[in-house]
Design brief:
alpha+beta; Glutaredoxin; 4-stranded mixed β-sheet; 4 helices; 6 strands
Length: 139
């Protein structure tokens, strides 16, 4: 099984998502995207796989989003991608790629929609919130 997570270890949502993947029995390929940012081709492929434009993947909190004026409609998709490549912190996370799909996993339990084995039992997030077990889907 091949699962990849674009991860920021300083982000609680990203840490919870990674823990859920591991609780499903998978050890994903972990890409710390702030250390090893995706190439333009990789970022474009992720956006296409998610079926969203770059604006949907921009992170505002704790980034130069406001300073750069990225809420201005004048920026093209290519320009927004350029900003994300120049400032990887602008890429929202975590992004998870599995054989069942690619998703921005916010909230972290969104990963359960694309995990091959989403029946991970009850899961307690770092903040104490409990994600209740999902039952296996009937075939």
């Amino acid at each position: 099984m091949s699962i990849t997570i674009y991860h920021n270890p300083a982000c609680g949502t990203s840490r919870n998502t990674l823990a859920m993947i591991r609780q499903s029995g998978e050890e994903p390929r972990v890409i710390e995207y702030l250390v090893t940012p995706p190439s333009r081709a990789e970022l474009v492929a992720l956006l296409e796989a998610m079926g969203v434009g770059p604006r949907a993947l921009l992170r505002r909190k704790g980034t130069p989003y406001d300073t750069l004026g990225l809420d201005d409609a004048k920026w093209s998709d290519d320009q927004l991608i350029d900003f994300m490549l120049e400032h990887p912190i602008l890429i929202n996370r975590p992004i998870v790629v599995t054989p069942l799909g690619t998703s921005l996993c916010r909230p972290s339990e969104a990963v359960l929609d694309i995990l091959p084995d989403a029946d991970i039992g009850d899961f307690t997030k770092e903040d104490g919130e409990v994600v209740l077990a999902r039952k296996a889907k009937a075939s």
